[in-house]
Amino acid sequence: MSRVVTTYHQRVAQEKRALIVTAATALFLELGYDRTSLARIAERSGVSRATLFKQFPSKAALFDAIVTESWSTADEEDPPPAGNVVDGLSIIGRRYAELLGRAQMTDLFRIVIAELPRFPELAHAQFSHGKMPYFESVRSYLLAENEAGTVRVEDVDLAATQFLGMISNYVFWPTLLVPGWEVSAERVAQVVDEAVRTIAARYATTGPGASTND
């Protein structure tokens, strides 16, 4: 019985946490980070102030949670195993495109850009808690492929940046900057496939499109 009760309380806490994060994101967009108080967030989310402060003792902690959840992949998938760079990058590319296509990712960047002059720490949190951990996971995958001999990459940081940039420059940045910009699922798939082929042509040592460069 105690396990059932514990599971119930955990589920309720997770649901309230999601309500708080959603309400905070909306208020940061509407009012700005500075003008949004934790009390107002509690009111918008429908939870008590005590509940909110128990989960998030400060506004900075709440923003960190928004960053972490925005950058988290569905089900927290493990990186693909090394051995086939085309298959592995295809998996990573699809995950990245799905991540960038979420409304909360666009909201996060808009908050950071709007508040950057007054609150540069938000940009730091976005970079250190969101973008860099994700980048590091892609970098680690390419290192594993390099060690497996399926690719020859001298500058792994550059290769990871090239791959992610080819996807984000088409499926994300126009959405952030151009009202009404939409990219179809078919086009997203094509963008990912082309990015994979480009990286394979440049760095792969085996398989289709393998580089012949020494």
From TrEMBL:
InterPro entries hit by this protein: Homeodomain-like_sf, HTH-type_TetR-like_transc_reg, HTH_TetR, Tet_transcr_reg_TetR-rel_C_sf, TetR_C_Proteobacteria
DNA-binding region: 37-56
One GO MF term: DNA-binding transcription factor activity
Domain called HTH tetR-type: residue spans: 14-74
Tree of life domain: Bacteria
Any one GO BP annotation for this protein: negative regulation of DNA-templated transcription
Keywords of the record: DNA-binding, Transcription, Transcription regulation
Classification via SUPFAM superfamilies: Homeodomain-like, Tetracyclin repressor-like, C-terminal domain
Alphabetical list of Pfam families matching this protein: TetR_C_7, TetR_N
Transmembrane segments: none
Name the UniProt record assigns to this protein: TetR/AcrR family transcriptional regulator
Source lineage: Bacteria, Bacillati, Actinomycetota, Actinomycetes, Streptosporangiales
